[in-house]
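Appendix C reproduces, verbatim, an entry submitted by the partner laboratory led by Prof. M.T., so that reviewers can inspect both the input and the predicted structure.
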Amino acid sequence: MSAAIISPDRPRLRPMREADLNTVLEVERSAYEFPWTRAIFRDCMRVGYYCFVYEASRGGLTGHGIMSIGAEECHLLNICVHPEYQRQGLGRALIHFLLMLAQRKRAQVALLEVRMSNVGAYKLYTQLGFDEIGIRKDYYPARQGREDAIILARDLTLDDPTSRPKPLRRV
């Protein structure tokens, strides 16, 4: 049996600041073909969405997450990890953090959209207990036209967000 080794270089989460936006945009552009703009990030901070960044011990930013909460729902709007830091558990840890925060703020359901073509993210979300509840036609920009989004949801009232939940019942 092996013990987990905690690396001192593991990035830590902290609230996003206006001064982070240049680096946040670099991370966003490195990970996505159709990245968010500075105005979108600025608006999310201005309206009080929950905006966090991963900061590496050496000072660089390696990822970010944006979530809104209202009407007993949270919406994971942007989960991004720099490609060089992917597949190290940072995305999973970021989602767990945001879901626990949402529960503390009394959200009962978590929602998100994922591109049909983003198989890796879809797999992660379903492993974390999100279930398909619908499709948004032509939701995302694509190289040729638009791409559909899969709408996923997770019931936050049943369990601890770090554990595998019971499936969400479809209505």
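Helices lie at 21-31, 38-46, 90-104, 119-127. Additional entries are available on request from the coordinating office.
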